[in-house]
Amino acid sequence: MVMTAFTVTWDYRCPFARNAHEHVIEGLRDGADWDVRFVPFSLGQVHVPEGEPDVWVRPESDSGLLALQAAVVVRDRFPDRFLDVHWALFALRHDEGRHIRDEAEVRRVVSAQGVDDDAVFAEIATGGPLATVRDEHTAAADDHDVWGVPTFVVGDRAVFVRLMERPRGDAAVARRTIDRVLDLLTGFPGLNEFKHTSLKR
Predict the structure, then answer these.
(1) What is the 3-state secondary structure (H, E, C) of 50-85?
(2) For an engineered disulfide with 134, which of 26, 56, 69, 148 has Cβ 3.0 to 4.6 Å away?
(3) Residue 41 and residue 146: Cα distance in Å, rounded?
(4) Is the predicted pLDDT of residue 201 greater than 60, yes or no?
(5) 3-state DSSP helix/strand/coil % of the chain, to nearest 5
(6) Does the pTM of the predicted model rise above 0.90?
């Protein structure tokens, strides 16, 4: 079976990123034949006014960077725990309404998913995870003109996607949803924009 490879960006502050990533995670947990690369993307950096310093030189000023760094450490050092931590950090922000810039809250989430939070934050203290976030964000912006989350990338094609519904535990819905996104991305390159005029059903 040929695996479908794609990249998807995220920032924990975006509710649409949460929706899309829950679909991806549900599908992966159900055995979907996807090879997914999760790429951090800072919405704070995107909104830096011209002439102002990048968020990378003042990470404490940005509300999303701490959680992104923690997730990158887990992704790269504890990959078997990444999906659980990833899901839980989205939940921290959008379900629990907590602050993802709060180290104690991020530590609580990481630890609750079976990861050594001291090891994660020791790695963050080296500056390496911040550099990784910066480099992956910059590559996404430079190579694929990414400007928001979630953006799906397959080969040289990239598309920003807003999914309005969460999978709510339905793996079949999750797999069908992501497969549909990928089909549109790879099978209909002439479609540039398709947007409902309202949210009425």
Answers:
(1) CCCCCHHHCHHHCCCHHHHHHHHHHHHHCHHHHHHH
(2) 56
(3) 9
(4) no
(5) 55, 10, 35
(6) yes
Band of residue 192 on the pLDDT scale cut at 50, 70, 90: confident
Q: Which SS3 state, helix, strand or coil, does residue 20 take?
A: helix
Tokens 């725990």, located at residue? 81
Closest CA relative to residue 36, chosen from 11, 70, 3: 3
Sign of the CA dihedral with 181 first, then 11, 44, and 127 last: negative
The rounded distance, in Å, linking the Cα atoms of 159 and 8 is: 10
Q: How many helices (H) and strands (E) does the chain have?
A: 8, 4
The pLDDT assigned to 195 comes to 84
Pairing of strands 34-40, 151-154: unpaired
Per-residue CA distances from 58 to 48, 84, 116, 134 (Å): 11, 29, 26, 12
Query: Partners of 159 in the beta sheet?
Result: 152
For residues 16, 81, 88, 112, the Cα torsion angle rounded to the nearest 10 degrees is -170
Give the Cα separation of 134 and 145 in Å (integer).
15
The tokens for 6 are 């794609």
Residue 58 scores a pLDDT above 60:
yes
4: buried, middle or exposed (CB in 10 Å: 19+, 13-18, 0-12)?
A: middle
